[in-house]
Design a protein that fits this description.
- It contains 8 helices and no strands.
- It is mainly alpha-helical and 227 residues long.
- The chain has one domain (45-226).
- The chain starts with a helix and ends with a helix.
- It has helices spanning 2-25, 28-44, 49-57, 59-79, 95-117, 126-143, 151-176, 198-223.
Length: 227
């Protein structure tokens, strides 16, 4: 019976798509997509078309995504705010894990920074680079029972990065009456110093995302003792 119902649902979807596809091809969404592809490099100077969309044409949406991540980090922090103890695992990490976590930590950080600095040139960006940095922090926690993030420093730096994102948006208003408008020189396409404000925003997002995810990791590890 389940197979028959599944087959009916699949056939229904196929018929619906086949019926509405001609109408969808005339939809404005398709025209917008073609506009992005045709104008992304020329208008933004970013060789990564996805980056040009999420940080220029739809930069306000990205600001909302960063805000959602901030609220998630804030919620986890409130959830475990009563626990001030350091994480002390019952099973101590092995020598290989302890040594490798310390040796690879700076390489993780450097690789994450490379990803978000080159986000306008390659399939990377602030969220990807920030996630790699948070992975480095998690790896460091796994390799040592006594590690503890400098809480106040992370909170201040994370707040400054968020204000920096908003500040660049308001700078666009002052320069051209458009929030998050790409008001800086676009430079030469395919070079590091290009795409105007886009690489600057990606650096800010990379720092912000990395710190927020690292804070979530630290709070979850502290909260482990309450489970």
């Amino acid at each position: 019976m389940k197979k028959i119902l599944s087959l009916i649902v699949i056939l229904t979807l196929i018929v619906a798509i086949w019926h509405f596809l001609p109408a969808l091809s005339k939809n404005k969404a398709f025209k917008i997509g073609h506009f992005y592809i045709e104008h992304a490099i020329k208008d933004t100077g970013a060789s990564n078309v996805v980056t040009s969309i999420v940080l220029n044409f739809r930069g306000f949406d990205t600001l909302g995504e960063v805000t959602v991540l901030f609220l998630a980090s804030l919620g986890v922090g409130f959830l475990f705010s009563g626990n001030t103890k350091n994480y002390k695992p019952e099973i101590q990490p092995s020598l290989i894990l302890r040594v490798s976590s310390r040796l690879l930590f700076p390489l993780f950080i450097m690789f994450g920074a490379y990803i978000f600095i080159h986000g306008h040139l390659t399939p990377g960006g602030g969220f990807q680079g920030g996630s790699i940095i948070a992975s480095a922090v998690l790896f460091l926690y796994l390799g040592s029972k006594d590690k503890k993030l400098p809480g106040h420093f992370i909170e201040y730096l994370e707040s400054l990065s968020g204000l920096g994102f908003i500040g660049i948006g308001f700078a666009g208003i002052l320069a051209s009456n458009i929030f998050l408008n790409n008001f800086m020189p676009k430079g030469i396409v395919y070079t590091l110093f290009s795409a105007g404000i886009i690489p600057v925003i990606y650096i800010i997002i990379g720092i912000k995302v990395g710190l927020e995810l690292s804070k979530i990791v630290a709070d979850l590890i502290k909260g482990e003792e309450n489970v």
